[in-house]
Amino acid sequence: MDAYLQLDHIDKSFARGAVASEVLKAIVLPIHKGEFVSIIGHSGCGKSTLLNIVAGLTPPTAGGVILEGHEVNAPGPDRAVVFQNHSLLPWLTVYGNVRLAVDKVFGKSKSRIERHDWTMHNLKLVHMAHEAHKRPAEISGGMKQRVGLARALAMEPKVLLLDEPFGALDALTRAQLQDSVQEITTQLGNTVIMITHDVDEAVLLSDRVVMMTNGPSATIGEVLPVLLPRPRRRLELAAHPVYLDCRRRVLDFLYRRHRTFEAA
Amino acid sequence: MTLPVKIEGIEQPLTPQKATILRLPSPRAGIVRARLLSYAHMAAANTLPPLAVLTIALVVWEVLCSTPDATLPSPTRIWAESKELITDPFFVYGPQDLGLGWRLLVSLQRVAIGYGLASVAGILIGTVIGQSVWATRGLDPIFQVLRTVPPLAWLPIALAAFRDSQPSAVFVIFITAVWPIIINTAVGIRNIPDDYRNVAKVLQLNPLEFFRKIMLPAAAPYIFTGLRIGIGLAWLAIVAAEMLTGGVGIGFFIWDAWNSSRLPDIVVALIYIGLVGFFLDRVVAIAATIVTRGTVRN
After folding, report:
1. Residue B136 contacts A, CB cutoff 8 Å
2. Distance from C-alpha of B213 to C-alpha of A100, rounded to nearest angstrom
3. What is the ipTM of this complex?
4. Which member of A139, B20, B137, B144 has the greatest number of CB atoms within 10 A?
């Protein structure tokens, strides 16, 4: 069976003058509908570049992204991105930020009232409905990320792209948000690609963990299926043998076989 | 009823006691008075220092200019000779004998037209320049040279082109105010974070939506900086332009007063011009605060 989303032999190199540096090489990754895939690797391995290629924000040098049998090479709301630094528009309220996306995606298919309800529905999903009237500067970092998630979910994307969504958050807030993301994506059955450098996060949330080798010319080193039942509760998992085994194998890949020598 | 309470390992019975209720005065009146007092304090702190400085300046001025051979009028002489100009800005005695209020309105109207055109043109041209690397490379050096040309240097060319003083004065305002608006808008557009552009790309905003929903609000703080510099320059230029073009404006009034040796009138006109300039600057600053919702602090 063909995959829902296919990353098909993607190469990416950046040319600076006559010198071209190859960042990604021969990335092949089929992703099924409703699957949660994490991409993990050391910083600088090009995993964010890969996500930008899937989002259509960066063109690949060779290869392509095939979604439901069609090649996609421009950004669009069918591949909604939750950016690492939330990227909310500071002059709009929480509601206004989500509403902008809703108006753009459903401007023709939904009535004004339906769009309002849909905006509020998505804010409720991330528990931000009570802060709808506030501006991004008035809410915490975790809340901003929630709004970013609501904005992405509100587009009803075919694929949800999370670019280190919890990277800038403290550990407790991060745990809360991971639980929220797991609950929501399991409930809605989203297809998700998440970039992360946090081993626990990858194992906790994913159906498969894709481990990238170090750049230059980074590629997929290993793909680890995480065969844990859902819903996953972090306290129960802490001593679960499958969880511990997955975690050990990712750590082994990252820190033994592909550690960075110049790591600070 | 007694409750056993453990204190340092010893069990003691606790007997409830009757509370004594103290009636406190209602805080409402106290709060209002305190708030009024704090407002009064703030108002005094902001108005008393300038008033004190003004008083001292007037006294010094009076002393310096009260000698019989003083070349400039003293405050009391200004009050005696130009009392009507100060107290009644809106008198009409004849086509050239008008209160300063009317003259200011004529000048303000010219500024409004010239500055309004400069704002629209400046924001549009600035947006194009900020968006396009080639437009920046081509136009920016030219603009950097043109913006240093003093406003009045444009006047002869404008007079030759329009063959009329009214549009020439408006043109001088326009050409003076437009440069800072263009340059600041372009900088603002260039500084729009990539994040916002990425959001716009994912949402597939069309160019018009991108302009209205991302570019204008993101660049608004810069644009308003340009608008504020622009209004200051426009007001500087109008007085000079009117001195040369004539008509009813405040600039020509000063020139006319100089030609008929009415020095006290000139002093009064200067004060009016200063107050109006201050007022214009505040209006643009307040508009900036409202439009950018407080992201521009004054």
Report:
1. no
2. 9
3. 0.86
4. A139
